[in-house]
Every structure is written in C-alpha cells, then in structure tokens.
Amino acid sequence: GKARHFKWEVEYMHWSPDGEEGVVMGINGQFPGPTIRARAGDTIHVELTNRLHTEGVVIHWHGIRQIGTPWADGTASISQCAINPGETFLYRFKVDKAGTYFYHGHYGMQRSAGLYGSLIVDVAEGEKEIFQYDGEFNILLSDWWHKGSHEQEVDLSSNPMRWIGEPQTLLINGRGQFNCSLAAHVSNSSASPCKLRGNEQYAPHILRVHPNKTYRLRIASTTALASLNLAIGNHKMLVVEADGNNLQPFSVDNMDIYSGESYSVLFTTNQDPSKNYWISISVRGREPRTPQGLTILNYHPNSASKLPPSPPPIAPRWDDYEYSKSFTNKILALKGSPTPPPTHHRRIFLLNTQNFIDGHTKWAINNVSLVLPATPYLGSIKYGLNAAFNRKSPPDRFRPDYDVMRPAANQNSTYGSGVYMLRFNTTVDVILQNANALRANVSEIHPWHLHGHDFWVLGYGEGKFTEKEEAKFNLKNPPLRNTAVIFPFGWTALRFVADNPGVWAFHCHIEPHLHMGMGVVFAEGVRRLGKIPNEALGCGLTGKMLMNNLHN
Ligand code: C2O
Ligand code: CU
C-alpha cells in the first residue's frame, strides 16, 4: 500500500449550510471536511492542527478498525488526550478494508458542530470490485440546527433538561435549503422557490448521470439525531454494501439509514431521459418537523436547473416500524463472507434506559450513565494507573424482573466510568435491550456503534430477550457491521471476537444521547500493545507519568 499524507487545520468559520449563516467546524476552510480517498492497504497520515481558540479537538475514523493503532482511533478520554489549541497530532493508520466510511469529531458535541467528512476506500491495487458499475457518487448525510452545539450542550445538561428538538434542515454533502424549497413548484406549501445560481454554499450537490448506465451511490449518515429514509424518484436501488462489508444484493424503492451507518447502492439510469429526478431524504422514527432534504439526479444533456415535474418521493410513515424492520431484515452477508464462531464465551446484556440523576435527564446502560475520565483509558489501563477510572466493572446483566414495557419503577441512575474488560481473543455476545423511556409508551430508536471491530448481527426481536430466542439466531449469513439499530421495545443480538488490542467505545450514535451517557467502554489485550505515542498521553495521570519519567 501507499502512504497518503494530509495536513489539516480545524477551525470555526462562518458558513451557510442551509441558507442561514451560522458557525461550523471546518477543515482547511471546507465544510464538510475534505474527502479522503485511498486504496485498501494504504496508510493514511493526517497531521491535524487545532486552530480552535479555546477548545480541544480529536477526529475519529468511523468504521476503520485501527488494527494495531488503537491510539489513532480519535476518541477523547478513551484513545487519546484531546489536541489542545495550537497543537498538532499525527493520525497514522492503515485502511485495511475497502468500503464507504466517514470521519467526525469525537469530543463534546463537535460532530453536531459540523466536524465531519467522507473516507472512501477502494479495493487494493490490482483487485477488482465484485460489483460492476460505470460511475459512482458519494453522499454524506447530516442534520443541522440553527442553535450552536455549545448552547445545545448546556441545554442538555441543564436541570430540567432542555431538549434540542428536531433539526431545522437535513443536509446532503453539507448542503440543504431552509429558506426556500427546491420542490416549491410542485408542492402546495407556502415555501418559496429557491433562486439558486449553483455557487451558493447551500446549493444542492447535483448528481450528473448519463442514460442507460449503472452507478454506485455511496451513502453515509453522520446525523446528530435523525434516522433517515432515502429514495431516488422512479429508480430502484440494489443494496450491495453496508459499513464496508458486502451484502447479498437486494432491491428496494427506498431505504432507511441510521446515524453511523453507511451503504452502497447500485442504480441504473433507465428512466425517461428527458427528465431529471429527485433524490430525497426524510426523517424516520421521530415525528418529523424537518422538511425533506433534496437534490437532483440530472440526466445528460438536460439542464441541472430543470426541476423534476412531479413531487419528491413520499417516505413511509415516520412511525411505520414494521416497514423499517422489513428493510433491516433483508440485510444479509454476501455468500462467502466470514461467518461468526458458533458459540460465545461471554454474553453481556445491556439495558438501555432513560433516567434522572439529581434532576438531570440521562441515558444509562444497566443503570450506569457513562462519564468519561480526565485520563484516557488506553494509557491508564496500559500503565496500570488505577485511580484514573472506576475499577469496578459495570454489570453484565440487569435485573431479570425489569419490565422493559413500562417506565422504570425507580427512575434514578448513577454515573460511572467503569470498563468491560474482555479476555483477549474471546467471543463476546452483546444483547442490546431497549426499554420504555421516562414517558409511558415511548421507546426510541438507538443506532449502536462499536469502535475497533465489526460485529455480526445475529438477530432482532420484540420485547424482552429470553434465552429461547437464541435458537433463532442467524449464524449462517449474518451481516458484518459496525453499527446496528435497536428498535423501540425490542432487542438486537451482536457477536464479535475481542481480538484487537485497545480500548473501544460502544455507544448510541445519536450525539445528544452519547452526551447524556449512552455508551460503554470495552478493553481487550491492552498489555500486548507496544509503546503508545507520547502525544496521545499528555494529559491527566498519564501526563504526570510522562513528567515524572522526564525528571527521573
Ligand atoms: Cu461515529 Cu464513536 O462514533
Ligand atoms: Cu440513542
């Protein structure tokens, strides 16, 4: 593989992602950040300089397993110290597997602030893609609020909590329209039509195609909150990749995508070539208060400003969970993909609840709401700095009599920074158990994302998981993924092998939920690691340790 070098500077800048000017986190003056394109086997070097004036920063490479380089995972308090203003950190890691990935901030709520971009890995030099296509596009989906991420953070942490509400705008490659609608001419809403010249920061990213060709559309979602449904008007999509893993291809009219997920679909431009078509994204799983995000599939040689003559695709009803489940159940591994070990060594049950701690609304896992320590776990575990975090491991199960269908009898929870220590090379099952939130009859969607690994998704079910359900696990062709959703009042079963030395976050990818404690930390094989680069350790107790080493 090749070495690919990048020099990036992160800064706040004025930007109009949706036509209203606000402040975003940009990289080298761009929003979203630059797209990284590499080949499997390449080594990426990103020299990241923090040009923010008053806060730290880190960048996480979502979906890259960081085999042998856990200090490059870019998680503040977990894999490294946040990079201070004016400082530079070198992210050096191998992209070992082709696929559609992205990167984003992983400190505070910097992902909500717009710190993200795409990371595309092509097959290794000399290898062939297993799917055939004539061209490709890449879209990164996000959601945007007019209130800044710092104010959102204060709102979420206050007592009583002030919820951030629904996003103002959905963005496709960082572009959306708040003040106007591309579809004004075909909708009966009062929205004014967009008068765009095409060079505005919020002008849509147009997909230009030729008739009768097949294209690959890469899609990743880094939304802070929204679950989305994507459609290309009049065109079918063949889903072929999820989170960097090949799928048994299946055809759909529209597809769901949750925060943290990525897909590739193939579509053929076999429709009336005298027209252009909509590409739309719509909110799922929460009552939508955000207009559809739109862009145009532009058939050559039509003008890109020729708008489709009919309204954008209609999304399935936001609360039609059966629809979402039927899509999710179609996702299976391509024949010949790695299959899971037939049995597990350890099974961890994780109950997802909404709670109060001293009047503050929190999310908790087995009644522990995650707070991150001042010293990153990777260094504190490696060097045995026992005072750095809660030494007691969080529980592997929750009370068997817990009623997941009702608000908790005791709504109080506790903070914790404990770690699930996994024996190296063992097979771990995780049963994510959803439950009723604080309000009766409410249970939300949570897309869970694991760092450092892909996992097999063995199955989904309704209500409380019982050992009997194990008979229904799919051990034959379960998809390998790094993100899997739990549906309201349901459970999701995952399996992975703890074979990647490091400390890995496992959390809900909804940014406010993570911020309110919805995550756990896994550690495995840390003592096998060689030297951790000093620049990942210069804070907290590992920072003190480095100072002492200097003085001795
Ligand atoms: Cu994309 Cu820990 O997240
Ligand atoms: Cu969540």
Key structural traits:
mainly beta; Immunoglobulin-like; 7% helix; globular
Task: Characterise this structure.
InterPro entries: Cu-oxidase-like_N, Cu-oxidase_2nd, Cu-oxidase_C, Cu-oxidase_fam, Cu_oxidase_CS, Cu_oxidase_Cu_BS, Cupredoxin, CuRO_1_AAO. Pfam families: Cu-oxidase (PF00394), Cu-oxidase_2 (PF07731), Cu-oxidase_3 (PF07732). Its cofactor is Cu cation. It catalyses: 4 L-ascorbate + O2 = 4 monodehydro-L-ascorbate radical + 2 H2O. With 552 residues, this protein is mainly beta. It contains 5 helices and 32 strands. Strands 10-9-12-17-14-15 form a 6-stranded mixed beta sheet, with no helix packed on it. It has a 6-stranded mixed beta sheet with strand order 21-20-25-30-27-28, with no helix packed on it. The chain has a 5-stranded mixed beta sheet with strand order 11-19-18-13-16. β18 and β19 (293-299) form a beta hairpin. The protein is globular. The structure holds CU-O-CU linkage (C2O) and copper (II) ion. CU-O-CU linkage binds at residues 60, 62, 104, 106, 260, 449, 451, 505, 507, 509.
Gyration radius, rounded: 23 Å
**Top-tier CATH class of the largest domain:** Mainly Beta
Tally of extended strands?
A: 32
Oligomeric state: single chain
- N→C terminal distance: 41 Å
Instruction: Work out the strand percent.
Output: 35-45%
> Major sheet: size, sense and barrel closure?
6 strands, mixed
- Pick out the low-confidence regions: none
SSE topology:
Elements: E1 3-15, E2 22-27, E3 36-39, E4 42-50, E5 59-62, E6 88-95, E7 99-105, E8 116-122, E9 135-144, H1 149-157, E10 169-172, E11 207-209, E12 214-221, E13 227-232, E14 237-242, E15 245-252, E16 254-257, E17 262-268, E18 277-284, E19 293-299, H2 321-329, E20 346-357, E21 360-365, E22 368-370, H3 377-382, E23 414-416, E24 420-422, E25 427-433, E26 446-450, E27 455-462, E28 480-481, E29 483-486, E30 490-497, E31 502-508, H4 511-515, E32 519-524, H5 540-551
Parallel strand pairs: 1-4, 3-8, 9-12, 11-19, 20-25, 22-23, 24-32
Antiparallel strand pairs: 1-2, 4-6, 5-7, 7-8, 9-10, 12-17, 13-16, 13-18, 14-15, 14-17, 18-19, 20-21, 25-30, 26-29, 26-31, 27-28, 27-30, 31-32
The chain binds CU-O-CU linkage and copper (II) ion (CU).
Enzyme class: oxidoreductase
Pfam families: Cu-oxidase, Cu-oxidase_2, Cu-oxidase_3
Cofactor: Cu cation
